[in-house]
Specification:
The chain is of the alpha+beta class. The chain contains nine helices and 33 strands. A hairpin with a 2-residue loop joins strand 11 (202-211) and strand 12 (214-223).
Length: 510
């Protein structure tokens, strides 16, 4: 392996080896032959968009066949997948994990305060962040070893190949012991403070308000559950269930700062004779092309008479690292929290499919924000990210020399073929139906079958009754059936279009 050949350190030290591979993942000064280059938004000129890759073997093959030229482009899940493969290849146990609401704090002269601030205006519009940002999700790796030569704990260690902040003058992160991260033992190597902010930073929301009866000011609200809200990895029993690692990284019930700040706000509101408001919101998972419904419930726990408030709904498009790309929709409704309805009100906001279908959600997501405004001052604000299910891909497998009626089909399951000894190829057909009449553009399929040679024909588009079907086929060729009989070939099919992508896989038992 080229990467290991360039490593000049102590190969018996797993910490040094893992840290080197974290650095090797990306092109940077001192590492001109980095494996992949990161890019977090369009255009992806001179390379492939990160969603193009469906397996690390594609990246490794391109890297080698192009003379060790850095492969373009990657985002965190691609960095994590490549690092996972490399660690396992050299015999270090590794797992790839995904963190939702991951904090990225920029250090203050090398010091991490585990604090990220967000700014909003009086209408609930997001203005930007200070000291870092909160990513929609982030992916990195855990590696296992029990022979650290420093004083840091052994066991699972956080390791990240995505370039974020410099460590010892290079873009690298870890390995940092999970037990040290969880217990905030930040004196241990490596990069423990940075990971603490990823999974357990305080998010301080600054809401700037201007009203007719006082000068502009702002109100601070702490929400501690935003960073590291959920950390998962694949189950170790081979099932499709996820393994929750959230509390391997952070202690349970660490809410003291949140409680102190909440009490302080309540005291201040009582002194100013401002009622105490609460807000809840729900956002259902929807299929791509369906309208998205956001339901908000406003409640006043201290009101003694009918109270008029405004509910503001904002929808913004954010990229995977939390930056606002566009403002999608804004709606302000005046509601009465009446005594007859127990000082509560429920309002519904619907975002139509035509409002989001051209937003290129392959590299971004929709964040819904609901805020309560009373006397032109924001009292509460909640956010949720919409979960949009991509259109499914159906995969059909056909043994040659059989009729179309003999086609066997499956998605995310096994298909067993009874191949004749004379057969030399297997045809796989895949398609997806676009029933939402949204007119997808630039639709293409990508197929990954590991190391087996395959051919791939062009995409066929059929239109019927305002619905469109996209069809692709390819053959598994040069399969030695005697050697492969009874073995499984995994086929991964990815559909990529101008605004959405989808992926399905099937295991073909030959």
């Amino acid at each position: 392996m080229f990467a290991l050949k360039t490593f000049t350190g102590d190969r018996s030290d797993p910490v040094a080896v893992a840290r080197f591979f974290s650095l090797f993942m990306t092109i940077q000064p001192g590492n001109p032959n980095g494996l992949v280059q990161g890019r977090w938004q369009t255009p992806y000129s001179g390379g492939k968009e990160p969603t193009y890759w469906s397996g690390t073997n594609q990246i490794a093959k391109q890297y080698v066949t192009t003379g060790l030229q850095t492969v373009k482009y990657a985002q965190c899940w691609v960095f994590g997948g490549c690092l996972n493969t490399m660690m396992r290849t050299i015999g270090i146990a590794s797992r790839q994990l995904f963190t939702f609401g991951s904090g990225h704090e920029s250090p203050d002269n090398g010091v991490y305060h585990h604090l990220i601030e967000e700014k909003y205006d009086q209408n609930g519009n997001y203005l930007g962040s200070v000291h870092g940002s909160v990513w929609n999700f982030h992916s990195w790796n855990d590696v296992w070893f029990n022979s650290r030569k420093d004083n840091a704990p052994n066991g699972w260690q956080a390791l990240d190949g995505t370039p974020q902040e410099e460590s010892d003058g290079s873009y690298q992160m870890g390995p940092g012991a999970l037990s040290a991260i969880k217990n905030r033992q930040e004196n241990f190597l490596y990069d423990v403070p940075f990971v603490v902010s990823e999974v357990d930073a305080t998010l301080l929301r600054n809401m700037y308000n201007c009203s007719a009866w006082r000068s502009c000011t702002f109100m601070k609200t702490i929400q501690k559950t935003t960073t590291g809200s959920l950390i998962v990895t694949s189950s170790n029993d081979g099932s499709s269930e996820e393994q929750d690692l959230t509390y391997d990284y952070k202690p349970k019930g660490n809410d003291s700062a949140l409680m102190v700040n909440t009490i302080t706000l309540q005291k201040r509101n009582r002194m100013m004779n401002i009622p105490s408001f609460e807000i809840g919101m729900s956002l259902d998972e929807v299929n791509f092309g369906s309208p998205i419904t956001c339901v908000a419930k406003a409640f006043c726990s201290t009101c003694r008479r009918d109270t008029k408030v405004d509910l503001v709904f904002n929808v913004v498009q954010v990229n995977n690292i939390g930056q606002v790309m566009s403002r999608v929709s804004n709606l302000r409704k005046t509601v009465i929290l009446s005594e007859m309805k127990h000082f509560a009100a429920v309002e519904e906001f619907v975002l139509s499919a035509k409002d989001y279908k051209n937003l290129n959600l392959k590299d971004s997501s929709l964040r819904f924000q609901v805020s309560i405004i009373y006397l032109e001052v924001i009292q509460k604000l909640e956010t949720k990210t919409a979960s949009i299910i991509p259109p499914p891909i159906t995969i059909h497998v056909k043994e040659p020399m059989t009729s179309l009626s003999a086609i066997q089909s499956g998605t995310d399951k096994d298909v067993k073929l009874n191949l004749k000894s004379s057969a030399s190829e297997v045809m796989v057909m895949f398609y997806f139906d676009n029933h939402v009449s949204l007119g997808l553009k630039d639709v293409r399929f990508q197929v990954n079958t590991g190391c087996l040679k395959n051919t791939f024909d062009s995409v066929t588009r059929l239109v019927k009754n305002d619905a469109e079907t996209f069809i692709g086929t390819f053959n598994l060729l040069d399969v030695n059936l005697e050697e492969m009989r009874g073995k499984s070939v995994s086929v991964i099919v990815t559909m990529i279009s101008d605004s959405v992508h989808s992926q399905s896989h099937i295991d073909i038992v030959l």
